[in-house]
Design brief:
With 145 residues, the protein is of the alpha/beta class. Helix 3 runs parallel beside helix 4. It is globular.
Amino acid sequence: MPIAIINGPNLNLLGRREPHIYGSETLDDTLAELGLQFPGNAFSFFQSNSEGEIIDILQKEGYMEECTGIVLNPGAYAHYSIAIADAIRAIPVPVVEVHISNIHSREEFRHTTVTGAAADAVITGCGRLGYRLAVEYLLSLQKQR
C-alpha cells in the first residue's frame, strides 16, 4: 500500500539552500534512499511551493483507499497554514509531519506548528532520518490495523 511523501515550499532547493541547516543532499537523494530502505513499499512523491496544490494532493492521497499514510514536510506553511491543517483533519489516513531542522531551536515563529497540531505525529530535528522514522511509524500503524 503506497505512502505519499509530500513536501512544501523551498524543499525543491535542498542541497543548495542553507546547507548548514538542511544538509547537502537533494530531495531526490532523500526520496531515493527511502526506496532503498523500504524495498517492496510503494511511494508517491510530490513537492510544491503552492499552498493550494499541497491541499489538493493531501485530499487526493488522503482519500485513496489503498493509501497507508502521508509523510508531510509543509516547510514554512507549518507555522501559519490553517488551510493545510484543516485538510489534514479532513482526511482519514494518518499524517506524520516532518521537519529536517529542529524548529524549536530556531527563530521563535518556527516553534509553533499549526499543521503539526492536526497531524498524528511530528518528527523534528532528526535531519533526513525524520523521513525514514515517519515511514516506519506509518508502517507500524498499518500492521496494527
